[in-house]
Amino acid sequence: MVSNKNIAQNKFKNRTEKTLDSSQRFLNTLKRKKANGYTQNGVLLMKTLKEITNDPSLLSICLFYDVLNYPEGKKILKNSNLSKSEQIIIKKLHSLENLSIDSNIKDINKALRYFSADYRILILRITHRLLDIRNLEKFSQKKAKKIAQETLHMYVPLASRLGLHKWRHEMEDICFKYLFPRIAKKLERKFDFYRENDISCLKHTEKYIKQKLTESGIKCTLENRIKSIYSTYRKMIVKNRKFDELTDRLAIRIIVAKKDTCYRALGVIHSIMHPIPGKFKDYIGTPKENGYQSIHTVVFPLPNVTNMPIEIQIRSKEMHKECEFGVASHFHYKKDSYTMRYNKKTRADLIKNLEIIKHESPTSTQKLSHLMQSYFRGDQVLVFDSKNRVYHLTKPASALDFVCIHYKKKIAYLKSVKINGILGSLETLLQDGDVVEAQFQEKKSFSKRWIKMCHREQSKKMLLEISNE
Fold first, then answer.
1. CA atoms of 172 and 184, how far apart (whole Å)
2. What share of the chain is helix, strand, coil (3-state, %, to 5)?
3. Residue 337: pLDDT above 50?
4. Which residues are paired to 439 by β-bridges?
5. What is the pLDDT of residues 277-327, one digit of tens each?
6. 322: Cβ–Cβ under 8 A, 6 or more apart, which residues?
């Protein structure tokens, strides 16, 4: 018997193939002197994006990504099989084509607004940048250097905030090797010197842990990793440690079915291997700002198993999926399409976490840091209107405060407000991620009681002026 899940997956696969085939055939029928001129970059971009998602909408957008770079691009886009919202994304991406860390404040502000309103624009920008980083040799030395610097300072933190850790590490390593070749080669020699011993330690430890967990009735999958070259260098600088003094250079991941099993597995690990004091971190109980969840513990070397300290990471399958694929792991099947499984808080957190660029990129320009600081402030609540536009209100802020900002000319005719699709009180205090929609009537409905419902001085002043008319 075929399960509902399998039926949904087959429907999605069919829709993906149909959508992409339609886009591909449309572009290929266009008469141009250079065959596949439109699709060459688009196909490469699509293949890159497929590393994290099979969403047909995003993949189709990839095929048309640079079509507006051609004189006939607008006509082609208009006649394409893309929806209006997908065409808008193409246009916004095109307007951000020359965005760089040296761009003026107006352009950077526009980018932040686009990223905030639609996460897909941000994912596609990061995908395009990864493709450029993988092909730095096609650029001039001056251009390639700028791309590498910009990627480390701008796109790596963004990828991290979206949970795209694989892409983040890849971009870091490529940029590091290009910008600091001498240091990178010196570190690579260190990696090569320890490689045989590192692989042996990981192999024996993984076998030992798997056996003990199985004996304890815990089903699991194990993976191992050697810390990336850039992460190693950064840790050496930040912690002022030598290469062979790093305790988390080698790691084993334990992936179990459920959250509570993570703690059972931790108990087994600590019973068979001695943890190093001060190296335990529970990112399940207290997730990182980008949503990362896992238990980390570092254990001492164990005779006949490993002569190196090893970091043990324990997480559930769901946590691992999100760690591997980031924001793209939130796609789920619903009514013949894949949508984001984000609640309002997660959505607001995703936008607010862009602020991390300021902290993780100390070498970014002051201009960018200043803008990020003013754009995301801790004393503000982030809300959306019915058209997904973003508003930052100083806390506390009521639903009426929002209406005073967004509907200044119509405030006297206010009938009611909806908060997250449900009728609410005008004095309701707004929370991060709330979607607020105002409803109006033909006759004036103003009441002096409204003034007490507001917290912003500007709102109170506006309502006082209306009451004195």
1. 12
2. 55, 15, 30
3. no
4. 416
5. 999 999 998 888 667 899 999 999 888 888 889 999 999 998 888 776 665
6. 163, 291, 293, 329, 330
**Does 347 or 87 have the greater pLDDT score?**
87
Instruction: Report the alpha-carbon distance of residue 299 to residue 222 in Å, rounded.
Output: 16
Q: Using the Cα atoms of residue 182, residue 183, residue 188 and residue 190 in order, give the sign of their dihedral.
A: positive
Q: CATH number of 379-467: 3.10.20.30, 3.30.870.10, 3.40.50.1950, 3.40.1050.10?
A: 3.10.20.30
Alpha carbons 278 and 152: distance in angstroms, whole number: 30
The residues, any chain, with a CB within 8 Å of residue 412's CB and separated by 6 or more, are: 444, 445, 446, 466
Q: Where in the chain is the domain with CATH 3.10.20.30?
A: 379-467
For the segment 373-383, what is each residue's pLDDT rounded down to a tens digit?
A: 444 445 677 77
CATH code 3.30.460.10 region(s) in the chain = 181-329
Enter the DSSP assignment of 356: H
3-class state of residue 83 by DSSP:
coil
DSSP 81: S
| CB of 434 closer than 8 Å to CB of 390 | no
Return the H-helix or E-strand segment holding 4.
Answer: helix 4-28
Which residue type does 43 have?
V
SS (H, E, C) 39-77: HHHHHHHHHHHCCCCCCHHHHHHHHCCCHHHCCCHHHHH
Q: Give the architecture-level CATH label for domain 181-329.
A: 2-Layer Sandwich (3.30)
121 in Cβ contact with 86 (< 8 Å): no
Alpha-carbon span 171 to 164, nearest angstrom: 11
Burial class (CB in 10 A: 0-12, 13-18, 19+), 75: exposed
C-alpha to C-alpha distance for 100 and 121, rounded to whole angstroms: 15
Q: Which residues on neighbouring strands pair with residue 254, listed in sequence order? A: 222, 314
Calpha distance 313→425 (Å, rounded): 46
Q: What is the pTM of this model?
A: 0.66
For 186-208, b/e burial (b = at least 16 CB within 10 A) is ebeeebeebeeebeebbeebbeb
Q: Which of 328, 381, 313, 423 is nearest to 126 (CA)?
A: 328
Which single residue is written with the structure tokens 């640079």?
A: 66
Whether domain 4-178 has CATH 3.30.420.10: the reply is no
Hey, CA dihedral for 300, 303, 305, 306, is it positive or negative? Answer: positive
pLDDT in tens, 143-174: 999 899 888 878 887 887 777 888 999 999 99
> How does residue 4 score in pLDDT terms, banded at 50, 70 and 90?
low
Strand 331-334, strand 281-282: pairing: unpaired
Interatomic CA distance for residues 167 and 398, integer angstroms: 40
